[in-house]
Amino acid sequence: MSAIDEPTERDLQLGIAAVHFGRELASLRVSAIPRTVRGFNRPRLVRLLVAFANQQYLTLQAKVRKELKAQKGGRLFDMERAQQLVVEGAGGQEMPPDDLVTYLVDSLPHWLFHAWQVADDAPSNEPEPVIDFAAAAFRIFSIEHSLRHLWLEALWLGTRLRKDGETLVDEPWDRDLTARWLVWAQRDLQNITAEFNIDAGAHIVAGGRRPPVVPAIERTVIRISRPPSGRRVFVTGRATGAKPEQRNHVSERDALDRLYTGLFMDETLPKSPGGDLTCRELSRAWWILKDMARLAADDLGPAWWETDGDVERFSLKVGREDLIRIIAECLHVTAERAGSMIDWFTCNPADTSRIFAKSVWAEPLIPEPGTGNLQIVLAPLLSASPVKRIEAWMERGGISDSRGLKGRGKPFERHVRRVLSDVLAANELLTDVSAAEHGLKRKGESEEIDLLVRVGEVLLVGEVKCFVAPSEPTDKRNHLANLDKATAQAEAKRAWADANRGAVAEALAVDASLAAKLRVMPVVVLNHGFGMGLERYGVPVVDLHYLRILLGWGCYHGGARFERHVGVSYETITLYRSQAEFEAKVDVLLRDPPPLERFNERVTWRRIPFQTSNDKPFVIELPAISENAPTSALRDLRSVQLMKKRT
Question: Is the pLDDT of residue 208 over 60?
Answer without folding.
Answer: yes
